[in-house]
């Protein structure tokens, strides 16, 4: 699974300048002031993950209510896209030496 996730991230990086691939953010921008987190869009994971651990934790705390929202599945993304977003967030932040305390199972529980 890690290889798949890294492959998706690599492809996303290659296509960053095009509209061919958009990382699903699952409505996370709705939980952020002006749809940004300290100037970072929620789909630009490297921007978020290069911040200090406290800011990464703050980001996760801010977006979790939107990920758990019943609107998320109805309007913004499927469970598969949610899994992809959380996995990529965790992997990218791990590459920056940061920990993301967010589990897919805890987010979809009850939805």
List key phrases describing it:
single chain; Extracellular membrane protein CFEM domain-containing protein
How would you sum up this structure, described in words?
It comes from Clohesyomyces aquaticus. The chain has 111 residues and is mainly α. It has one domain (2-9, 27-99). Helices cover 57% and strands 0% of the residues. The chain has helices spanning 2-14, 45-49, 53-68, 70-76, 79-95, 104-108.
Count of the domains: 1
From the N-terminal CA to the C-terminal CA, the straight-line distance is 24 Å
Percent of residues in β-strands: under 5%
Gross morphology is globular
Helical region count? 6
Question: Given the helix and strand composition, which structural class is it?
Answer: mainly alpha
Q: Give the SSE order as H and E letters.
A: HHHHHH
User: How many strands, which pairing sense, and closed or not: the largest β-sheet?
Assistant: none
Oligomer: single chain
Number of strands: 0
List the uncertain runs.
Answer: none
Signal peptide: 1-20
Protein name: Extracellular membrane protein CFEM domain-containing protein
Keywords: Signal
List the helices and strands and how they pair.
Layout: H1 2-14, H2 45-49, H3 53-68, H4 70-76, H5 79-95, H6 104-108
Helix pairs in contact: 1-5
Protein name: Extracellular membrane protein CFEM domain-containing protein
Organism: Clohesyomyces aquaticus
Keywords: Signal
Give a quick summary of the entry.
This protein has 111 residues and is mainly α. It contains six helices and no strands.
